[in-house]
Amino acid sequence: NPNENNSSCRAAYSRLTYHSCAGYLFSYLYLSGGNDRAECLDSVETYDPDTNVWSNLPCMNYPRGRFECAVLNDRLYACGGSDGRRELDTVECFDGSKWEPSTRMPQSKVT
């Protein structure tokens, strides 16, 4: 409730990024990729709301910004985007421990 004086704070995300993608899987918030003003990122971090802690996870196979994420069948999918030089038609999925390539899209897609 925004009208209540709530003294508990949520842990701040460790870096300034934009064009990242987020998904909710296994009771965690996943924040992946994006740009940090200098380059596209392949980094992935997860937030655990129970412990209020951000943690690093295995990087995606491709750096990407301006892409879409989806959760389907207990997997987080990263689709399309840009690596800073070209638009991507690649898709990769995270199963909770590692990223694996998935079927490519028929054409590149940037959001």
What would the keywords be for this entry?
single chain, 111 residues, mainly beta, four-stranded antiparallel beta sheet, globular
Short description:
The protein has 111 residues and is an all-beta fold. 0% of the residues lie in helices and 33% in strands.
| Distance separating the two termini | 33 Å
Shape: globular
What strand order characterises the main sheet? 1-2-3-4
Strand content: 25-35%
Largest sheet: 4 strands, antiparallel
Number of strands: 8
Helical residue percent?
under 10%
Overview of the molecule:
By secondary structure, this protein is an all-beta fold. 0% of the residues lie in helices and 33% in strands. A hairpin with a 2-residue loop joins strand 5 and strand 6. It is globular. The protein starts with 20 loop residues before the first strand and ends in a 10-residue tail after the last strand. The model has no long low-confidence stretch (mean pLDDT 89).
